Amino acid sequence: MVRKRLLCLLLIPFLLMSALPVSALDKEERLWQDETVYDIMIDRFNNGNSKNDYKVNVQDLHAYNGGDFQGITDKLNYITDMGFTTISLSPIFDNEDKGYDGNSVQDFYKTEEHFGSIKELKKLVKEAHKRKLKVVVEFVVNEVGPNHPWIKEESKKNWFTDAPKLNLNNPEVQSYLTEAAKWWEKETNIDGYKIKQVQNAPKAFWTAFAKELKNVNKDFFLIGEVQSTDLEESASYQEVGFDGVMNMEFMKPARQSLGKVNSSFEDALKTADESQKIFTNPNLVGIELDNSETVRFTNDIVANNHNPGSRWKLALTYAYTTPGIPFIFYGSEIALAGEENPDNLGLMGFKADKILIDFITSIGNLRQTLPALTRGDYKTLYNKNGMVVYKRSYKNEVIVVAINNTSKTQYVTLTKKDLAENKELRGLLAGDLVREDNGEYKLVIKREASEIYALAEKTGVNIGYIAAIAGIWIVFAVFIILAMKRSKRSKK
Q: What is the reported pLDDT for 465?
């Protein structure tokens, strides 16, 4: 009993200290641009139910490898612990043999048996929502499997442009896909769709498609992947029904820069600057370093004889702090490697070095607590030979991001032209502190390192705070002495 009371007393100072005033953000209503997405290839993530392992062969990357809905459900805490707020799933529909990636659709109204039942999918969504984790599903519109029964139907010849490519100009095809999309939305309570190659369908279709889905749920999220080197063409899809747009062209320059040391950021920042002017909402642009169709970013790093850990940290800092929604492909947290598809779709490994996972967790938490990183405007403050500094501002919050992609320590001086005077920059990743001195902020960033700073009022010696802490410890000491005396008396 005495020990329990002493333990409670030990906790008192810490509880009181935590109650002292601290800098806090008034969190507003959560928007889609506040999300951080973990992008999952279902078959390659985690095998949670061996009963659905039909013709599974983990030695063959062209075959099903066993990942399923239950496996993802089992790892939801793993995902949320890293700071992710949304999961994006590869296609869930019934597929042909070896259709592990979900693109060889056999039936738009059934789940793939290797992944589990619709009941298990609903359970996954329900458990995700319990953790305030949203669920986006990739909806296939461009094709079906080569053995789909429609292909042999005479009445559906005009449903295809070239078997098995769907004719997205055909009103019957458009109606079928819209109804199927609405059915899954209602049936499973998912939160959104990611759709690839949206440029293959008329824009008028997407406007009608979006209207139908948002009539069911006004907050339902639609993000379209556009294959185009033209930013204006990509941006146009935000005007026809898509909330967000994804395009690897956005991240190619950044990926090329961050894949090797001493590489310029010029092209990456140019793309970021152009996006601010072209997109209706640049904060809803999907940011991805790799996906199911690209060589893994880790391979770029290794090809340049660099350490994957340090390179990934810089790349993640960039992806999490530039305008847009980060889509982090499964396995990035363990620097999973892989060449062209399907080599880039290796099985996830959960027994790995946690250094990169810890970094993702830290930066993920920062993204969730700093609205400037998800809603703020963007301005480049410094860019020279691989050293870059930019600013994100939202209301009264100012965040400064410094990325040193060089092999030497870099020194950057910011002035009152860049930041308000008589403030300080508080490092939130590495704990750096930079006070304004004669109108200047002098940043020192070690080689291949990054820092995220919050602009704040200058701190000094807080006599009141120190006195309060001292008082707490004095009270604590008195409690301990009295407890010990009482314990001795009770023993006598």
A: 42
